């Protein structure tokens, strides 16, 4: 996924190109940043990406889950290291 564009699109630009922009988002190629006339910013992203971000937030905010993930990663790293050294 490419980064969010540095300059947000106006809502009018988004309206004029909505079909195309939705296709880009659906294909996982972009997030669309837009701003309204007050300067408030919004992002159009896929539901899959939103779910992933929310899942990551839940994991990081739940210390027990975070510890479990860290422990699993440490075990995996150790096993991978041992396996690589044995070859």
Short synopsis of the structure:
Helices cover 62% and strands 11% of the residues. The chain is built from four helices and three strands; from the N terminus they run βααββαα. Strands 1-2-3 form a three-stranded mixed sheet.
How are the elements arranged and paired?
Elements: E1 9-10, H1 11-16, H2 18-26, E2 32-35, E3 41-44, H3 47-61, H4 63-86
Written account of the structure:
The chain has 87 residues and is mainly alpha-helical. It contains four helices and three strands. The protein is elongated and about 60 Å long. The N terminus is likely disordered.
Task: Summarize the amount of helix as a percent range.
Answer: 55-70%
Largest sheet, if any?
3 strands, mixed
**Proportion of beta-strand residues:** 5-15%
Mean pLDDT: 83
Oligomeric assembly: single chain
- Strand order in space, largest sheet: 1-2-3
Distance between the termini: 35 Å
Q: Tally the helices: what do you get? A: 4
Write down the Rg: 20 Å
From the helix content, strand content and strand pairing, which structural class follows?
A: mainly alpha
Q: Give me the count of strands.
A: 3
Characteristics:
single chain; 87 residues; mainly alpha; 4 helices; 62% helix; disordered N terminus
């Amino acid at each position: 996924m490419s980064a969010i564009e540095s300059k947000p699109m106006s809502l009018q630009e988004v309206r004029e190109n909505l079909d195309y922009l939705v296709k880009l988002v659906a294909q996982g190629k972009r997030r669309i940043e837009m701003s309204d006339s007050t300067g408030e910013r919004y992002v159009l992203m896929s539901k899959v990406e939103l779910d992933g971000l929310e899942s990551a937030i839940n994991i990081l905010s739940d210390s027990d889950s975070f510890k479990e993930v860290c422990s699993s990663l440490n075990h995996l790293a150790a096993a991978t290291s041992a396996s690589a050294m044995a070859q």
